[in-house]
Amino acid sequence: MRSRIIRPGFFSNEKLARLGWAAGRLFQGLWCLADRAGLLKDIVATIHGNIFPHNPEVNVDKLLSDLHRGGFVKRYRVGQRRYIQIINFTQHQPIHPKEARSIIPPPRPRKSRGPTLVFPGNSPAIPRLDRPSSTSIPPSTPTPSSQRDRQAGVKQNGWEDDK
Fold this sequence. Notes:
This protein is an alpha+beta fold and about 160 residues long.
């Protein structure tokens, strides 16, 4: 485990508090287990043994999933190996210059497929403009990017979900 700095705002984070005390303690412990890039192996038994050695009843896998859904960590796979990325770790943690470089592969950015060109009449999902429909959206109406992203299955953090 590594020594890390926990800032006072950590303890007043309402979103983290709603996940419960065990999730907060797990999140603190993950900071100490993570390398300089905020990455660590997702091995539940090892994490449990390091952070909750005297609390066998704590369900670390469920808490990791809660932290993932809450946007505090990103659980991902590279091949058959599972890893965890602490979101925004490098923005909040000063790293000692002598700390070794990370050997854990970071999550891959989601591949952009680029814009899809669809012309009226070549897709059954797009209404033809020459046949007005009460449900069709006028062509000049922009779709908010967050709505477009949700429709395309893009996650808020921009990474592809492997879990």
